[in-house]
Fold this sequence. Notes:
The chain is 29% helix and 30% strand. It is an alpha+beta fold. It has three helices and seven strands. It has helices spanning 16-27, 56-67, 123-139; strands at 35-40, 45-48, 76-79, 82-89, 93-98, 101-107, 111-117.
Amino acid sequence: GTSPHSGASSHNNSTDMSWQAYVDDQMVGSGNVRRGAILGLDGSLWAKSPDLELSADEIAKAVAAAKAPTSVLGGGLVFAGTRFMVLRGDENSIYGRKASDGFVLAKTNQAVLLGLYDDKIQAGSCNMAVEKVADYLKEANY
């Protein structure tokens, strides 16, 4: 039950570094996520991998999809200019693929976590790594 910002002076003073650490250490650092990002449900970008370029449109559509997963089922989502087929989704997570690459979107109370994987990473491993961080944030009321 520690907060995501243990060591930070206050909850409201969430530095970009702390969210960045979730992307770098917990997601990409796990070895099961190639590139990742944390988006706010308000459409803001909290943190992302340095080599991940997300357009404002891609971020907006990811957040909209997380809020209404059925709206993208059978369709696609674009991340970093690559269009992925949406395979399945529910109120917690959305999964998609393109050939051996894919993504997972995991929604928390205030954020949407994005994890991208490539042919060197198993889809299930990426999903688990991202959802583990999402569960932790939910418990901390993020």
